Design the sequence.
């Protein structure tokens, strides 16, 4: 298995030959994946030169995934230090994270506020909230008092959604299929992951909403970077 010193040796080779890797994070459902250069490799850690938006994600998440064609698998690493003004991060605890990125590069935006909706499961219609939206999927939190065990909504169950999307609040009707179910501890609420099958009208509405929300979140990410940079510089000046 590719691990430990072998990973650090490979990273040292990237540093020696000036070969960038790609770091992969997400900001509120938007993939943040930029090239990063390995600056120096130490005992169990490595310092990377990173993109400004990646510095925000590393500060917030405390972890990242690393991809390079010469790595046998994607790596996961923990961030122990992030210098936002210098755009540098020290990563450690490199471990294998599999050969596939899965949905990490899929844009799945989080609404500014949860969107109220209805979900129909069999003969039952329940209130719910949309907590993330993509062109072919929804993340949903149910607000009903029923348990999904009673309703029989497991993976593969067919569902129907009705909701409106800001800013136009045009009605959207979406067929879907449950791909994941997670129950909140000590709660009747459940979180569903659903694959959706939009028709042409719904597809256009989703495309417009996701693009609009992505632009809003990118502006927000830029503002967060500016704030983090200013605060770190202020802290360094006062210390």
Sequence:
């Amino acid at each position: 298995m590719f691990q430990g010193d072998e990973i650090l040796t490979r990273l040292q080779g990237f540093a020696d030959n000036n070969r960038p890797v790609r770091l992969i994070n997400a900001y509120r459902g938007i993939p943040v994946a930029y090239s990063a250069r390995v600056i120096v490799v130490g005992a169990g850690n490595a310092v990377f030169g990173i993109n400004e938006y990646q510095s925000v994600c590393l500060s917030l998440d405390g972890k990242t995934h690393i991809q390079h064609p010469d790595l046998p698998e994607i790596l996961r690493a923990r961030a122990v230090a992030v210098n936002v003004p210098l755009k540098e991060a020290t990563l450690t605890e490199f471990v294998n994270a599999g050969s596939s990125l899965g949905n990490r590069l899929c844009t799945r935006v989080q609404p500014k506020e949860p969107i109220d909706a209805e979900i129909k499961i069999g003969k039952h219609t329940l209130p719910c909230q949309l907590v993330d939206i993509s062109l072919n999927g929804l993340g949903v939190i149910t607000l009903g008092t029923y348990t999904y065990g009673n309703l029989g909504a497991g993976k593969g169950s067919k569902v129907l959604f009705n909701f409106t999307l800001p800013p136009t609040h045009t009605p959207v009707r979406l067929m879907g299929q449950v791909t994941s179910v997670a129950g909140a501890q000590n709660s009747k609420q459940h979180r569903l992951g659903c694959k959706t099958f939009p028709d042409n009208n719904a597809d256009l509405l989703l495309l417009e909403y996701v693009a609009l929300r992505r632009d809003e979140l990118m502006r927000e990410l830029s503002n967060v970077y500016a704030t983090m940079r200013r605060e770190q510089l202020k802290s360094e000046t006062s210390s």
